[in-house]
Every structure is written in C-alpha cells, then in structure tokens.
Design a protein that fits this description.
Layout lengths: L1 H14 L4 E4 L3 H7 L10 H17 L5 E4 L2 H11 L6 H14 L2 E3 L5 H27 L10 H19 L4 E8 L6 E9 L5 E3 L1 H17 L3 E8 L5 E9 L2 E4 L2 H8 L15 E3 L17
Length: 297
C-alpha cells in the first residue's frame, strides 16, 4: 500500500515538473499550499523525500533539473494576474516555468536536499539583496552639481575598488564580506574569489554583481559600513584585513581594529579567543582608488 502511494506521489510530481521543480523549502510554505485540493501531499517530510527521489531518478536518466524556490504568495499573485485557477497542476507548472527565468534557482548536482535547501535559500537572499540595493541606487537620481547619475557612478567606483582589492590581495582563496548600515536596512553581501590552478581569480558573476551593488550603495549614500577580506593559501597563515566605508571611498582598518572586530562577541561584547594560524593585519595600499573623490554627491 505504502509503495503504491509513493509511486502515485512521484507521478503527481512528474506531471508538475518542466525541467525546473519549484521546491517548498519550509513547513510554513508547505501548509499554505495544502489549501489547494489538487496539491497531493499532507506531510512536508514525505514531500521532500519524494522530491529528492525524483531528482535522483531524473539525474540517473541523464535529465538536467533546476530547483527553484516556490513561494505560495507569489504563486497566488501570479495566478490572479494571469487569470489562472491556482488549484490545477498546469498553473503550478506555468509558475514553475516562470521561476526558471526570473526566480532564485540552482541546478541539481546530486547533493542531498539537506544541503541543497540552504544553498537555495542563500541564493534567494542574495537575489533579494541585489534587487533591494539596486532599487535604492536607482532612486538616488542625478547629482545637482554635475548631473552624473549617482547610482551609476557609485557602481563604477565600487567595481574599480573591487578589482583593485583583488589585484592587491595575496595569492590564495579570498572570502570578502561587505556590510552597509542605515540604508535603511543593514545589508550584508559575501563574495568568494578563488584561484584556479593557473592562479586566475574565479568569481561567480551573480555574486560579484550583488557584492558590487551593495558596496556602491554604501559609497553613494555615505552610509556606515565596512569591507573585510580573508585570504587562505596552503602552508601559510590566513590573512584578515579590511576597510571602513568613508565618504565615497575606503579607509584602511588598523590591525588592532580588525583583531577587535573578529575577537569580540557581537551580542555580549566579551572577548573571544583569536583563531590560531591567523594574521590580523593592515590591508595593502589601494592607491588613489581607495580614497574619497574631491567632489561629493
């Protein structure tokens, strides 16, 4: 009986997949979909198991599948705007196909869902952060003095800064974190810049775009914030250094300031033991690129 039921569930999922599967990652979203009569699942854990089985089966058959974050509220709005009945499988299929081009997605690469779901949620946060920061940049308009588009100018400057930061970094893999406060929400963006066997820097384009946009927003709005980088290479201590956002540029943090930032508990203010085999140091000189411009927007 249970085997037959599982086969039926897999057939239901197969009807609703179109190269992309919309995944309900948490219980709250799952419960929201249970209001639809044609949604055939009543247990989130079982649902995830069936999705994972289907993904593995498709991979074994040589099929490529993209996993998208399925948001029930967005689905309901999509159906209302398109005049679709939300309680039929074909509507879910159309929405999922739409997600393939516009929503946060990641390719299924054989990882278990316990690893894939957090990665998908991170991708959704990254995309939302970029969209929010980009919207705020666009709202800044043009400079009253020089007519330059403030957001576009800040993005160009942030791009130059990022290139210079990577060019002056020590060899190895780089992990960068940029935080901007008071925009009005605090935004945090992470960028991984790893070196390949030939020493060339490898960047995820979407991640780099989000990181540059968040940095540009901080520069354009003169918001408090900072940028910290950690470099890791075999056989050498990790190096950690950073800058604070100051005006339209970056101001180097002292080694002591970096040490304090990493070795202080944010909530309690208590000291934390420093990591072993880590150098907290002063960043390389970025040259004129890292200094505020004479003209302030």
């Amino acid at each position: 009986m249970a085997h037959t039921q599982h086969q039926t569930m897999r057939r239901v999922l197969r009807r609703e997949i179109a190269g992309t599967i919309g995944l309900l990652t948490d219980e709250h979203d799952f419960r929201a979909m249970r209001r639809y009569r044609t949604f055939a699942f009543d247990d989130h854990k079982t649902y995830l198991q069936q999705v994972e089985d289907l993904l593995r089966t498709r991979a074994a058959q040589g099929s490529h599948t993209t996993v998208a974050l399925f948001d029930p509220q967005e689905y309901a709005e999509f159906c209302a705007d398109a005049g679709l009945d939300p309680d039929i499988p074909s509507s879910r299929t159309r929405f999922t196909a739409e997600l393939a081009g516009t929503g946060p997605t990641i390719p299924y690469d054989g990882r278990p869902l316990t690893e894939l779901v957090p990665a998908l949620v991170d991708e959704a946060v990254r995309q939302a952060t970029w969209e929010y920061a980009n919207t705020l940049l666009a709202r800044l308009g043009s400079c009253a003095s020089c007519s330059e588009d403030i957001g576009r100018g800040a993005f160009v400057r942030a791009s130059h800064l990022l290139v210079r930061i990577l060019d002056t970094a020590h060899p190895g893999n780089r992990h960068l974190v940029c935080s901007v406060t008071g925009t009005p929400e605090t935004l945090v963006s992470v960028l991984h810049a790893d070196e390949d066997a030939d020493g060339a820097t490898q960047l995820d384009e979407a991640e780099a775009l989000e990181f540059t946009t968040v940095l540009a927003l901080g520069l354009a709005t003169h918001s408090p914030g900072g940028l910290v980088m950690r470099t890791s290479a075999p056989g050498t201590p990790d190096r950690i250094y950073g800058w604070r956002l100051r005006g339209e540029g970056l101001e180097p943090l002292t080694a002591g300031e970096v040490f304090d930032a990493y070795c202080t508990d944010i909530d309690s203010g208590d000291l934390i033991s420093p990591e072993s085999d880590v150098d907290y140091c002063v960043p390389p000189d970025l040259g004129d690129t890292g200094q505020p411009t004479g003209h302030r927007h």
